[in-house]
Write a structure and sequence with these properties.
Blueprint (H helix, E strand, L loop, with lengths): L5 H26 L10 H14 L4 H13 L5 H9 L1 H20 L4 H18 L1 H21 L5 H17 L3 H15 L1 H13 L1 H21 L5 E6 L2 H11 L10 E7 L2 H14 L1 E9 L12 E6 L5 E8 H16 L6 E3 L2 E2 L3 H22 L9 E5 L5 E5 L4 H8 L1 H5 L1 E6 L2 E3 L11 E5 L20 H33 L7 H7 L5 H9 L5 H8 L15 E4 L3 E4 L6 E3 L11 E5 L5 E5 L3 H9 L4 E2 L1 E3 L7 E10 L4 H11 L3 E10 L2 E10 L5 H9 L4 E6 L1
Parallel strand pairs: 2-5, 15-17
Antiparallel strand pairs: 1-2, 3-4, 4-5, 6-7, 8-9, 10-11, 10-12, 13-14, 14-19, 16-17, 16-18, 20-22, 20-23, 21-22
Length: 708
């Protein structure tokens, strides 16, 4: 890949400076005198964060956002104002960063382990939107720790542990070595103050001695490499305090026994020169057994590549030697930012990922973050609230959070309802697999969708395992319910229009007809007619002008037994109907209400509609009582609330079957992982109802079962 010309590079640098100057000037007035929760002046914090981002090669938008994120909290309409001044991309980035700060603040509530898990979860989901948001959070945390170190203020223990347990491992996974070690050393200062003081004092006393030894070893190695025709850049370094302490803890060593306190880094041009350099090093000094690692052939999970060996150098003191190429060093020092910027034909930024492919890098890094989350979860002794979730990737490297046990169908509905409806197949990590395949964290899922169509009824069969989440199941049911409703309304419309044509009333307003029959709209009329809840004969009688019941019914002597087992007192030959709102059944206390044109509607006395009618139209209330209904059957509604799960509907259906109760209608809806189910059953009386309700309450997951 050709390099940019000096003129182009200068223009880009000028653009960077102009944008940063504009962001700094815009924020300065807003942040004057503003202090953060850490006690830092907001403007100073923004400047420090911007400087850290520059060291890892972050783009100009990310660096400018270090200022704009702080300024956004002081604006009345941040989206509108930032978009107008800096464009929609920077406004979105600032908004997402500010939003993540608030979410992370909320995540810290509760115990530390769960708080860290929630923080990691939020960072993962933020990464799915834009990796730069996570880079901003890492740089901001490092700047806060630097502030505490300069001012001598001790941060909260929670912030210190969070830095060690979440932020530093995250920086490591992203390959941001410089940020990682500084986060660790600064947090270690307050997490283990005595150990930190002892190690830093010990290192300080031997600083001049170490520098002399490193200079001597560098000179010897440089001469040896030159004699073999290998051009190399050699630098010395000292081990960081936190890494020394970790090695002491992990191997139960005394401070004096830590062998690799001195280290040399050798940078060469090509991979084959790394191994040639290793050979020269082992010829020059004696290698220590079991102290060699080949991270070129077997890179670390974050993509780090290098050869590591420990030898006995000058004065027989142990020295760690790291050997790597320029590309490996760029990735080791600056991580993902360097990887995306370092593009050279035929070069790999880290094992298996082409440096020219930003997409592949995004996928690889997303999987590293998912691996880090699993590691954090495994470190906790107790289960966390997120152990029942998996994180899978879209082809664009967006992270989607799903429940454990989720399938590609759940994934499709999580992305978009219409995509779920049209889902026909799924490629998981490139392989076409069945739709009932259980997904695992880190997999990349691509949905194969039809141009049109709907879900399969098989998806609702819990035995087939196509759907795990209640949310997806509810969407599938809603689709079928909508289809059934449309078919019912179409059949009802055809029947009503045919009746109107036969009666010579084709020009009649459908709204007028619906209101005349006591309904809200023509759609409700069609639904009732199509579902046979409203007999066509009743519509026909209305069209022919059947007389309405008088406002004050004339009560005549006698008792008439009406169909359905209802005995109406004092009224002869009036039609009766059981109210659909409360579905009375013997021996419910009942009350009658004389309707206009539809006879007597019989309600349970406890029915809210009946009470309202008695208050508003007391003159229409009529006394009714149950007669000898013989074998009459009455519909009864039973409401069940339960934790949604596979097999719930089957288990409840078995209860009705054992109780020999016929179910004639089922309506289910899922909200917030709860299933709300309404069963319409047929009973000759209510004597068997209490037993059936008790049996329902014993079904696992059922929280409430009652007559509605």
């Amino acid at each position: 890949m050709s390099e940019a010309s000096p003129t182009t590079a200068a223009a880009a640098a000028s653009d960077d400076d102009a944008l940063l100057d504009k962001a700094r000037a815009f924020s300065a007035a807003l942040l004057e005198g503003v202090l953060l929760d850490t006690g830092e002046p907001a403007l100073e914090h923004a400047a420090g964060t911007c400087a850290i981002l520059q060291t890892i090669g972050a783009d100009r938008a990310t660096r400018a956002c270090a200022y704009l994120s702080q300024a956004a909290s002081q604006l009345a309409k941040p989206d509108e104002q930032l978009s107008k001044a800096f464009g929609p991309e920077l406004a979105r980035l600032a908004r997402e960063n500010l939003g993540l700060v608030e979410l992370l603040r909320a995540a810290r509530r509760g115990d530390a382990q769960h708080g860290h898990q929630e923080l990691m979860r939020r960072l993962l989901l933020a990464f799915s939107s834009d990796l730069r948001v996570v880079l901003l959070r890492l740089a901001s945390r490092l700047q806060s720790l630097r502030h505490y170190a300069v001012t001598g203020v001790t941060p909260d223990a929670e912030l210190t542990q969070e830095s060690l347990q979440v932020y530093a491992p995250l920086a490591n996974r992203l390959g941001l070595w410089q940020i990682k070690w500084e986060l660790e050393d600064l947090a270690f200062r307050w997490a283990e103050p005595q150990a930190w003081a002892r190690i830093t004092e010990w290192l300080a006393r031997r600083a001049s001695q170490r520098e002399a030894l490193i200079a001597q070893a560098s000179a010897q190695l440089e001469a040896a490499l030159r004699s073999h025709g290998i051009a190399a850049r050699i630098s010395g370094r000292s081990k960081h305090a936190y890494s020394i302490w970790r090695k002491m803890q992990g191997k139960s060593l005394r401070l004096e026994d830590v062998m690799d306190l001195l280290a040399l880094r050798v940078i060469v041009e090509r991979v084959e020169q790394c191994y040639a350099t290793l050979s020269v090093v082992h010829e020059l000094w004696t290698p220590l057994d079991a102290e060699f690692d080949d991270y070129i052939a077997r890179p670390k999970p974050n993509g780090y590549q290098s050869l590591h060996t420990v030898v006995r150098g000058p004065r027989e003191l142990p020295i760690e030697i790291q050997i790597r190429t320029e590309a490996m060093h760029a990735h080791a020092e600056r991580g993902v930012a360097a990887h995306w910027a370092y593009k050279e034909a035929g070069t790999q930024g880290y094992k298996g990922v082409s440096a020219a492919s930003r997409y592949d890098a995004q996928i690889a890094l997303a999987r590293q973050l998912l691996a880090l989350r699993r590691e954090l979860a495994e470190q906790g002794a107790a289960a966390t609230p997120f152990d029942d979730h998996v994180y899978v990737l879209t082809p664009e490297a967006r992270i989607i959070e799903l429940q454990t046990g989720a399938t590609p169908v759940d994934f499709a509905y999580a992305l978009h309802t219409e995509l779920g409806h049209r889902c026909r197949g799924a490629r998981i990590d490139g392989a076409l697999l069945p739709l009932n395949t259980v997904l695992r964290s880190g997999q990349t899922v691509e949905i194969v969708a039809a141009k049109q169509g709907g879900p399969s009824r098989d998806w609702l069969n819990p035995e087939l395992g196509f759907i795990h989440s209640a949310r997806a199941r509810a969407k599938v049911r809603a689709w079928f319910n909508a289809q059934a409703l449309a078919q019912t309304q179409a059949a009802g419309r055809a029947a009503v229009e045919k009746l109107l044509q036969r009666e010579g009333r084709s020009g009649m307003s459908l709204q007028e007809l619906a209101v005349g029959l006591g309904l809200r709209s023509p759609e409700q009329l069609f639904e009732r007619a199509g579902g046979e809840a409203l007999p066509l004969r009743q519509i026909e009688q209305f069209l022919r002008g059947a007389p309405a019941a008088p406002d004050t019914p004339e009560l005549r002597a006698g008792r008439a037994h009406q169909p359905g087992g209802v005995l109406v007192v004092g009224v002869d030959s009036l039609l009766t109907q059981l109210a659909r709102c409360c579905k009375p059944a013997p021996p419910d206390p009942i009350v009658g209400f004389v309707t206009r044109g539809k006879g007597v509607s019989v309600h349970r006395k406890s029915c809210p509609n009946a009470r309202n009618l008695q208050q508003q139209h007391a003159e229409r209330v009529i006394a009714v009582s149950w007669g000898d209904g013989g074998d009459d059957i009455y519909p009864v509604d039973i409401a069940v609330e339960a934790a949604d799960r596979q097999g719930l509907l089957r288990d409840i259906s078995e209860v009705f079957s054992k109780a020999k109760i016929n179910v004639i209608g089922v309506h289910t809806q899922s909200r917030d992982e709860l299933a709300h189910m309404l069963f319409t059953v047929e009973l000759r009386g209510l004597e068997r109802l209490p037993t059936a309700l008790d049996m329902l309450r014993e079904v696992p997951g059922v929280r409430r079962a009652s007559r509605r």
